[in-house]
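User: Design a sequence. Structure:
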């Protein structure tokens, strides 16, 4: 409760939480919130400006080149962005934290080999690596999540390993080792809880990066299939009409920008609260 009170004192964190709440509601209830069918095409209503009437309602954010309602596609696209961001982050966290614990506790051949592997991956630009892998495996939602998840584990490994190198020399770890505790038990019961706060901060900030990466790959045509509404795909579809129908690009771009800013605001506040070197919680 004390943590929640301190979190709620920060106005920017509240703004970020409100933005994220809106995105989550849109993702969960997209079918009920979308005013039109996101795939319903009407060539006679193509490129209508925001606020134009059409069908049984109003196109509040206009229509695209195929006459599809932009607002409805943005609402449905929130589901894909949030799903990809959370699932890819979860994969990265599981792989990265697990390898980081091993690399930090067993800082010998295995630990050093893992760090060398991580350094090799960091030497390759992420977007280039993701483009190569997706191009080979094909564009699909599962492949996209897998690629994003398995190419961002290095951030967890480096932070978790650095903390484990210090924690393994602490008295409680030495006592557990002297009592005959197995290595998995020491990693899960003694080291993992002590690196959880850092992992939470990395995860909160990584979600925003995953959403941006998904949009970038979708913009390049290597994300999810084109028939699935995504913010990056919407921006790519409207780039040819940016001079005559700015809303086709601007509206999904604004949704993407706002979501990433909201997640980053939450991540920054979590970092301040969970890092004792940056702030101190008082009663």
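Assistant: Done.
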């Amino acid at each position: 409760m004390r943590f929640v009170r301190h979190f709620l004192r920060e106005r920017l964190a509240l703004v970020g939480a409100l933005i994220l709440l809106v995105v989550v509601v849109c993702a969960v209830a997209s079918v009920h919130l979308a005013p039109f069918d996101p795939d319903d095409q009407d060539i006679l209503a193509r490129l209508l400006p925001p606020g134009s009437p059409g069908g049984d309602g109003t196109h509040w954010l206009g229509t695209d080149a195929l006459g599809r309602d932009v607002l409805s596609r943005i609402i449905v696209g929130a589901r894909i962005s949030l799903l990809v961001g959370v699932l890819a982050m979860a994969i990265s966290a599981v792989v990265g934290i697990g390898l980081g614990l091993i690399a930090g506790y067993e800082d010998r051949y295995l630990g050093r080999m893992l760090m060398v592997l991580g350094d090799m991956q960091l030497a390759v630009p992420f977007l280039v690596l993701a483009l190569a892998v997706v191009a080979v495996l094909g564009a699909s939602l599962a492949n996209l999540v897998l690629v994003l998840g398995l190419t961002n584990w290095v951030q967890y490994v480096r932070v978790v390993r650095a903390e484990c190198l210090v924690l393994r020399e602490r008295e409680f770890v030495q006592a557990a080792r002297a009592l005959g505790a197995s290595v998995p038990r020491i990693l899960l019961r003694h080291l993992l809880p002590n690196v959880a706060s850092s992992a939470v901060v990395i995860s909160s900030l990584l979600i925003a990066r995953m959403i941006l990466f998904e949009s970038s790959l979708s913009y390049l045509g290597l994300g999810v299939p084109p028939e699935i509404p995504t913010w990056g795909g919407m921006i790519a579809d409207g780039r040819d009409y940016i001079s005559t129908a700015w809303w086709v690009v601007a509206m999904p771009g604004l949704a993407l920008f706002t979501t990433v800013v909201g997640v980053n605001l939450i991540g920054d506040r979590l970092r301040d609260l969970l890092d004792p070197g940056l702030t101190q919680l008082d009663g």
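The beta strands are 52-54, 57-59. Residues 2-17+30-274 form a domain with the MetI-like fold fold (CATH 1.10.3720.10).
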